[in-house]
Design goal:
The protein contains three helices and five strands. The model has no long low-confidence stretch (mean pLDDT 96). It is of the alpha+beta class. The radius of gyration is 15 Å and the shape is globular.
Amino acid sequence: MSGVVEAKLAELGLTLPEVVPPIAAYQPAVQSGVYVYTSGQLPMVEGKLPVTGKVGAEVTAEEAKDLARTCALNALAAVKSIVGDLDRIARVVKVVGFVASAPDFTGQPGVINGSSELLGEVLGDKGVHARSAVGVAVLPLDAPVEVEVQVELTEA
């Protein structure tokens, strides 16, 4: 089923990827009531990380921002796997972004803007959300960025 949200993705030249399979003991997303919570989404593309390393060292802030966009796209795929139709998103409630940072890197908010901007482009006002952008020492598989998303759904 292709609705308004997926038409907007297509208009932006984006394709919703397959859900990234879990790399440990968890589900990509779960629903509780009218909310869907995604697990942390790595910037996987066709089953692999396009870049690894720390932002501010091996990875530039601009590269990391693009990777954060990929994380958000993967999060939308995880939401769709639960609800079947992205048009059921009433709003994005919260985004939490983790940036594997070199010790002197302080641009985490700019990196996670990649996720926030993508959600805004795709969902309009429904994509406006609360957010945390956190610097960490290391992420799974040496990923530069990881993003989790919480969305509220409309009634079925």
